[in-house]
UniProtKB/TrEMBL annotation:
Keywords in alphabetical order: Fatty acid metabolism, Ligase, Lipid metabolism, Metal-binding
Ranges for domain AMP-dependent synthetase/ligase: 26-410
AMP-binding enzyme C-terminal domain mapped to chain residues: 460-534
Name of the protein this chain belongs to: 3-methylmercaptopropionyl-CoA ligase
GO molecular function: ligase activity; metal ion binding
Keyword Transport on entry: no
Catalytic activity of the protein: 3-(methylsulfanyl)propanoate + ATP + CoA = 3-(methylsulfanyl)propanoyl-CoA + AMP + diphosphate
Pfam families named among the record's database cross-references: AMP-binding, AMP-binding_C
Record family assignment: Belongs to the ATP-dependent AMP-binding enzyme family.
């Protein structure tokens, strides 16, 4: 048999093959732009040279504690320089970074620390009280390091908590030399971070990322967000959420500036955008609402157009128009914790601007096409694993395949096997594929409402609700019904200064939807959301169920 000349004497070697890692992004930026500002935090300015040096000091200090490959370093930090340093210093040692949701209660934190087998825990003093309670409940006993933010504002709504650690973060970092030489990853499949899912039912699952995926997300985020050289990125998205959609690693690709923001407040956002020339930010729809509904005294004018990446439900046309008027260009994304954050982008085509409003709205309602580094995105029948027709109507499960899909769930082989059944990642989301290859979500599989044998998409009903100018937030879930099995129940949050009745809401929906899809019940109160702005439908399902049939 003839040998393949393209496979003969053309082996991998260190000269032509190196494992991908996002740590290389920071190293390159520090080499090329050493004095360029990498981090802005209050009065603090950190250059790329200093950013790399501090990350290496952190790695050296952790290594002195015995931290190495296979260990977990947990952090409970706000969007501060320490969080950015942790994203680089921790994986430099070969260890895995576990970022804890800062809104969690002590029980959930204790579970994560034990499940992750945390060896070190870095804690912002803002969260020391809840973490102290969690540590008292946890089985593990990590080395605890206090982060005392020098830029913690005097005007903060609550003071710093007590010190609970054995060491101070700044002293810990400064105790080590800046000569740490990164030799890892030996394999780009090495784990880099651990992120826990929301855990709306039972304990959350630990999603594991690898160096390859995180590195590729750096390039993909630059492309999807339209970042040029030296962008200025405002941290309105929590860095604990999917590692901040991998943007802590992304900005090094283009020598960007991180503008830290401890709390998402309208005045602080407008001041940062105007004072620092912010060009990009990410956030849930609630961040858009905060900007648009800000007091006039808190708003600032700025000359640049700011790119706003948002996920979750497509923003209503009125919100998009309001954001455009305020100087923001909204980019709609979709993804999951298991896909390193956003893996789908509604890539807007210039010719769509000429469409009438209804047609534009229809285009904007779609989640979009796969990220540049996602190999495949499709909609399938989850039972037969056959692709559904790309007709914009046939509903199936959204599935992903590629290098920005998680390694799997930590210590949960059964859940990993189920998620990867058939060689695809099963998202649990239901959607349709349009003829032009654009994906549109229809619902989570558990959020489809089956009324009288008819399937009702809660997203479709929510889209109709958001078209009412008096509705600030809305969510639709199934309510048990003796006759129909289930009927739509709407939870509505009314804009300040407006009033609505149940009859108003139902009439509005009937003007846009088939009557059987319209809510039979409307509840008025604040719609509960997670710390990342996602609506907590499981709470609303419980409330609707309690109403009875």
């Amino acid at each position: 048999m003839r040998s393949n000349p393209y496979e003969t004497d053309l082996d991998r070697n260190p000269a032509n093959y190196q494992p991908l890692t996002p740590l290389a992004h920071l190293e390159r930026a520090a080499l090329i732009h050493p004095e360029h500002t990498a981090i802005i935090h209050g009065r603090l300015r950190v250059s790329y040279r200093e950013f790399l040096e501090r990350s290496r000091r952190l790695a050296n200090a952790l290594a002195a504690l015995g931290i190495a490959k296979g260990d977990t370093v947990s952090v409970m930090l706000s969007n501060t320089p320490a969080m950015l340093e942790a994203h680089h210093g921790v994986p430099m040692t070969g260890a895995v970074l576990h970022s804890i949701n800062t809104r969690l209660d002590a029980e959930a934190i204790a579970f994560q620390l034990d499940h992750a087998e945390s060896k070190v825990l870095i804690v912002d003093r803002e969260f020391s009280a809840v973490v102290a309670t969690a540590l008292a409940r946890a089985q593990v006993q990590p080395v605890v390091i206090d982060y005392d933010d020098s830029e913690y504002p005097d005007s903060a709504p609550f003071p710093k908590g007590e010190r609970i650690g054995s060491q101070d973060y700044e002293a810990f970092v400064q105790s080590a030399a800046a000569d740490f030489t990164r030799t890892l990853p030996h394999d780009e499949w090495d784990s880099i971070s651990l992120n826990y899912t929301s855990g709306t039912t039972g304990n959350p699952k630990g999603v594991v990322y690898h160096h390859r995926g995180a590195a590729l997300m750096g390039y993909a985020n630059v492309i999807a967000s339209g970042m040029g050289r030296h962008p200025v990125y405002l941290w309105t998205l929590p860095m604990f959420h999917c590692n901040g959609w991998c943007f802590p690693w992304t900005l090094g690709v283009v020598g960007g500036t991180h503008v830290c923001l401890r709390w998402v407040r309208a005045k602080a956002m407008y001041d940062a955008i105007a004072d620092h020339g912010v060009t990009h930010l990410c956030g849930a729809p609630i961040v858009m609402s905060t900007l648009l509904n800000a007091d006039e005294a808190d708003k600032r004018d700025f000359p640049q157009t700011v790119s706003f990446n948002t996920a979750a439900a497509p923003p209503p046309e009125a919100v998009l128009a309001g954001m455009a008027d305020a100087g923001f260009e909204v980019v709609h994304l979709y993804g999951l914790t298991e896909t390193y954050g956003p893996a789908v982008v509604n890539e807007w085509k210039a010719e769509w601007n000429a469409l009438d409003r209804a047609a534009r709205t229809s285009k904007k309602a779609r989640q979009g096409v796969r990220y540049p580094v996602l190999e495949d995105l499709t909609v399938m029948n989850p039972e037969t694993m056959e692709k559904t027709p790309a007709d914009g109507e046939t509903i199936g499960e959204v599935m992903f395949r590629g290098n920005i899909v998680m390694k799997g769930y930590l210590k949960n082989p059964a859940a990993s096997a189920e998620a990867f059944r058939g060689g695809w990642f099963h998202s649990g989301d239901l959607g349709v594929m349009h003829p032009d290859g654009y994906l549109q979500l229809k619902d989570r599989s558990k959020d489809i409402i089956i009324s009288g044998g008819e399937n009702i998409s809660s997203i479709e009903v929510e889209d109709a609700l958001y078209k009412h100018p008096a509705i600030l937030a809305a969510a639709v879930v199934a309510k048990p019904d003796d006759k129909w099995g289930e009927t739509p129940c709407a939870f509505v949050e009314v804009r300040p200064g407006h009033s609505l009745t149940e009859a108003d809401v139902i009439a509005h929906c009937r003007s846009l939807l088939a009557h059987f899809k319209c809510p039979r019940t409307v509840i008025f109160h604040e719609v509960p959301k997670t710390s990342t702005g996602k609506i907590q439908k499981y709470l609303l399902r419980d409330e609707a169920k309690a109403l009875g049939s």
